[in-house]
Amino acid sequence: MPTRSLGRRATALTVAAMLTVGLAACTGSDDRVSAGVDAAVTEESDGRAAADEAAAVAGESVVAPERDSSGVVDREVVVTGWIELTSPDPSRTTAELTRMVEQAGGRVEQLTESPDHDGEPGAASMTVRIPAARTTSAVDAISDLATVQQVEISRDDVTSQGQNLDARISALTTSTGRLTELLSEAGSTEDLLEVERELASRQAELDSLVAQREALSDRVAMSTLHIQITPLTAPVTAPSSGFTDGLETGWSALVAFVQTVVLVLGVLLPWLVLLGAGFLVFWILRRRRASAAPPSGPGGADDGASPEDPRDPAPAAGSPDREPELVR
Question: What is the value of pTM for the model shown?
Fold first, then answer.
């Protein structure tokens, strides 16, 4: 009996030791996952505060700007220009500008043209993108196509903005890499979900920063030119004097007057025809009513007014109706 009791106690102690070791291992794994997530969160918050601190926390240095052999920083500059042109044919100038931009390796991003009106040429406006290194030569080539009225070129240094984006992208890339490694070490479903949530958030922000960096790089590589093309108006000349010039001016005025009169008659003719037709119908109806009306008295005379009968006796002498005779 004592031997069996000792065996049972030894077995129980062994099982208890194994359980203790297993629990300790699980606890250590969970602690490592939680610690890794906390560390990644700390890295991201520091990266948002300042790009240099974020890169330091992530264990990598900030991406240094490119330098040439003399140690000068390669600056990033965005070039934007506004050009006003005058041309006798804006449509033809627009076509030539489009062909020139495409040959220079650029592209037309916006184009607006107004058609000709009453014999006057229209206008046009366009926005083009050309390689930044060819901006000066492009402006010179444009001046050969049309008359340049105004040119304005601006340059915006965005070197610090590009360095900041590069540093944040580097820090987020390191952070997402560490979170990806923690996915394989998650010891529970809760830890796994937490790591996935943080990883999705970091990846979305990383994609946004990469898109911003690509847009900034495109603005640096391709300059933007806004071009306005207006028609070239003919110069105003003072009228000349002299008999011949006066005769020409008078003849031109007469022709213009006749044309105006003909135009007015052409406008009024349909109305005159309509009014004449209406008056004719009114006159015909009035004649018919007058001819169809019956006489108002016997014998065709009016009431109370009968014609004199020659057979009526003459009024007697002394009658008030008898006219007095003239005394000779």
Answer: 0.50
